[in-house]
Amino acid sequence: MDISPFFFYLFGGLAILFSLFVVLKKSPVASAFSLVLVFFSFAAIYAVLGAHLIAALQVLVYAGAIMVLFIFVIMLLNQDVPSFDIARTHVVIRAVAVVATVALFGAFVWVFKNSALPAARGGFSASAIEMAGGNTVVVSELMFNQYILPFEVTSILLLAAMVGAVAIAKRQKSSAEVLREAAANQRKQAGRAAVGGAK
Amino acid sequence: MNQVEPWVVLSFCAAIFFIGLTGLLVRRNILVVMMCIELMLNAVNLTFVTFSKQLEHMGGQMAVFFVITVAAAEGAVGLGLVIALYRTLRTVDTDDIRLLRD
Q1: Which of the listed residues A43, A88, A168, A171 has the most CB atoms within 10 Å of its CB?
Q2: Is the predicted ipTM greater than 0.90, yes or no?
Q3: What pLDDT, on the 0 to 100 scale, is given for residue A197?
Q4: What pLDDT was estimated at residue A148?
Q5: In the CATH scheme, what is the code of domain B6-96?
Q6: Quick one: fold of A1-86?
Q7: pLDDT confidence of A81, banded at 50, 70, 90?
Q8: Interface membership of A87 toward B (CB under 8 Å)
Q9: For chain B, what is the total number of helices (H) and then of strands (E)?
Q10: Which chain A positions have a beta carbon within 8 Å of B42's beta carbon?
Q11: Which chain B residues are closer than 8 Å to A74 by Cβ?
């Protein structure tokens, strides 16, 4: 592929290093900030691969919105307690997990290295994209022509997620509070009836 | 070495994916578990973009767009669940969440 090896290996190395930090750092805040750096490295790799719109979305949505939400929740819960408890797992299970992960990763690499091109090439070569006006123009045109239905369904999904998140995270009244409020309402109504009777 | 083969990029994606999977299984803090899920989603996104580049087809990049949207929705709902869970149990440790077992 015609991509810059220097930038790919630079940002790829950074991404692997910081994703290891995400898993191995004891404090959740340290994990969150390592994850921000992983997202920025990924954005750089997207740009190296020529996916400029995706790179911008990565920075805006992942590094901007999602990580702010994560850090907000960490600070809100104030649960910055270390929790890297690999010792809680049995040693046999640990060994099996390591072997299984390495074997599966090896299988992936083997498949990627030895498989032929998985499908026929489409018409969007680098020069064709350049001719059509760049990556952003091409992706936007596809998004609002061929992929318009999924795009609109996405807006419904986001609305549902927003309503769901508010409904789940909202403080629910306990049953004692509900009873107390009902009693207060009854007293108020009784009082009003008494005042009306006096008149 | 002035050319990056596609399988190197794809293997890099797989490496990030397995780092995320390991974290998902190893960590006990539910917030870090969610971060590892985001890491795995990102690895899959990069695989999509790599195939999009390799096959000269834009479907991969469109898929990444939708995965990013779903990930944003998942993050919002998931963190809402974490807050609700913390309010009920006063913990974010996954070993202490066993309401259905007790």
Answers
A1: A43
A2: yes
A3: 65
A4: 93
A5: 1.10.287.3510
A6: Four Helix Bundle (Hemerythrin (Met), subunit A) (1.20.120)
A7: low
A8: no
A9: 3, 0
A10: 38-39, 42, 62
A11: 31
Is A37 in CB contact (< 8 Å) with chain B? no
CB-CB: which of B32, B73, B87 is closest to A31? B32
Set of chain A residues whose Cβ sits within 8 Å of the Cβ of B52: 51
Q: Which range among A10-24, A25-39, A146-160, A181-195 shows the weakest confidence by mean pLDDT?
A: A181-195
Q: Would you list the domain boundaries of chain A?
A: 1-86
Mean pLDDT of chain B: 89
The answer to whether the CB atoms of A31 and B52 lie below 8 A apart is no
CB A48 within 8 A of CB A126: no
DSSP labels for A20-65?
HHHHH-SSHHHHHHHHHHHHHHHHHHHHHTT-HHHHHHIIIIIIII
Helix axes A148-169, A135-145, angle to 10 degrees: 80
Q: Where are the domains of chain B?
A: 6-96
- Pick from A8, A61, A76: which is nearest to B72 by CB? A61
